[in-house]
Amino acid sequence: MNTIETEHRRGPLLRMIALARPRTGRFALGVLLGAFATGSGVTLLGVAAWMLATAASHPPLTALGISVVATRALGVGKGVSRYLERLVTHDAAFRTLAEVRVRVYGRLAATEPFGRFRSGDLLSRVVNDTEATLDLLVRGLTPPLISLVTGGATVLIITAVYAPGGLLLALGLLLAGLAVPVASAALGRAPGRRQAVARGRLSTSLVDTLHGAPDLIAYGAMDRQVARVYEADDELTRMARRDAAILGLGAGATALITGATVWGALFLGVVAVEGGDLDAVSLAVLVLVTLAAFEIVAPLPAVAARLGAIRESGIRLFGVLDTPESVAPATRTGLDPEGDSTVRVRDLRVRYGPDEPWALDGVDLDIPAGETIAVVGPSGAGKSTLASVLLRFRDPDGGRVEIGGTDITEYPADEVRAVVSGVPQDPHVFASTLRENLRLARPDSTEDDLWAALRRARLADEVAATPDGLDTRVGTHGLGLSGGMVQRLALARALLAAPRVLVLDEPTAHLDPDTRDAVVDDLLSATEGYSTLLITHDLTGLDRVDRIHVVRDGRVIQSGTHTELLAREGWYRDVHPDLG
Known about the structure:
This protein has helices spanning 3-9, 12-18, 24-55, 61-110, 119-161, 163-211, 213-218, 222-274, 280-297, 300-321, 383-390, 413-419, 434-439, 447-456, 460-464, 483-496, 513-526, 562-567, 571-575; strands at residues 343-350, 360-367, 372-376, 398-403, 406-407, 420-423, 501-505, 531-536, 547-552, 555-560. By secondary structure, it is α/β, with parallel strands linked by helices. It folds into two domains: 3-321, ABC transporter type 1, transmembrane domain (ABC transporter transmembrane region fold, Up-down Bundle); 343-428 and 499-579, Rossmann fold, CATH 3.40.50.300. Strands 6-7-8-3-9-10 form a six-stranded mixed β-sheet, sandwiched between helices. Strand 9 (547-552) and strand 10 (555-560) form a beta hairpin.
C-alpha cells in the first residue's frame, strides 16, 4: 500500500492532527506547560486545605511558612505556565493553519475545483473548514493530553494518601473524562455533520444572492432567494441549538459525577478518620483535591461534542486537498519564450472522468507561427476544453500538444503560460483600477507599456476620455465597464504579458450584435503577428482568419478557409448567417 492510500485510510481527525507533525515538539511542550498549570491549580487547593486544617490546631507560625510560600509560588506558577502554554500551542496551531491554507490554495491552483464545487460551498471549505484545523489542535488535541497527564498524577498522589479515595477518584475521572465525552461525541456526531453542511449551504445561498442580485431583482425572484437564505440560516441555528443542548448535558453530567465523587470521598474519609486510618488534615486534603481534580477533565465534554463538526469539516477540507491535480508535475524546465511559436495538436483526447464521454476525441490541428486559426462549433463541442489544454489547466488523456516541436506537458505550467496567454470566455475584472487590472499581467509595466497595450486592444481612446484615466475604478466584476470594454481590457492584459501564442475563448459570447462585430474586428486586428487560436460559436468575421476547424462531439469534422467551407455542404455552411 503506497503512502497516499495509507493517508486516505486514516480518519479525517487523525489526518488533521498529522498536519501538525512538523511541530510535534512545540505541542509536546505546550502539553507539559498545560499539565504544570493544571497541576498547580490542583496542588494549590491541596496545599490550601492542608494549611487551613493544620492552622486549626494553632501550630507555630513557622510551621505554616513553607505552605504560605508554596501557595504564592503555585499561584504565580499557574498563571505564568498557563500563559506560556497558550502562547506555545496557539503559535504552533496558527503556523500549522497557515501551512494548511497554503496547501489548499496550492491545490486549488493545480486543479479545476470550480467545476466540482459551487462558489459559496468552496468559500466555506476554504475558510470555515480549513480553520477547523485550528479548533482541533487547540481544543481537541492538547486538553485531553493535559488531562491524561495531570489526572494520572493526581490519582497516584491521592492513592498514596488513601488508597480507597484514589480508586474512587480514578473512577470519577474516568466517568467524567471518558464516558461523558464519548457520549457527547456520539450525540454530537450527526448534528456536527449536518452543521458543517448547513454552513456550506448558507454560504452558497449568500454568495448566489449577492452575485445574482441584478437578475433576481429583474425577474422578481429576490424574495424567493432571500427566503432560501433564511431557511439555510434557520437550519444552521437549529444545529447550533442542538450543539448547545449537548454541551449543557455534558456539563450537567460532569457536575453530577463531580458531586457524587466528592460526597463519596468525604464519606470514605470520615469512616477512615473514625477508624484511625486517616487523620483530619489528610481528610481535608483528600476532599478538596478530589473536588479540584475535576477541573482537569471539565473541558473534555465540550471538546468531544465539537468533534462531529470538526470531523465533517475535515472531510470537506480533504475533499479539496485530495482533488487530483489536473496537470502532472513537470519533467524538465527551460521552455524557450522566444522560440518557434508553431502549435501542433495531434490525436488530442480529453475527458473529465473515467466514466465520462470524451470531450475531445482525437483532435488534430495546426496553428502556424503568425497565423490565426479559428475553432468553431456548437456549445458542448469541446472547444473550451481545447483552450484549457493549451493554457495548461488540464493535461491530455491522450495525444500531444507541441509548441515549436516541444510537448508542453513536459514543462511547468507557468513556463507554458509565459508563452501561451489568452482571453477567457468570462474574463475576471478585479474591483480595482484599470491600471492594477492591466499590471496583473506584468507588474513591472511602465506607463507607456500600459497605453501601448490599450492602443493595440483599441481601448486607449475610451480610457483617455475618462476623468481618471488609468486610475478609473472598474467596480465589482467590472460593472463600471461595458461588455466590449471588459473584453478589450482582458485582451490588453493578455497582450501585455507578451506571449507568442494567444488563445481567445468565446470572446463575444455575451455581447450584442453591434458590439460583437466591433470587438471581433478589434481582436483580429490586435492579434496580427501572433499565433492565434480563436474559439467561438459565432461565425462573424471569420473571413479574416487563415483557417477554420469545425469541431463537433469532440472531433474535427470540417477544415478549410472561410470560402472553402461555404462552398461545401456541412455544418459551417448550414449555420452561417450569410446563408441562413
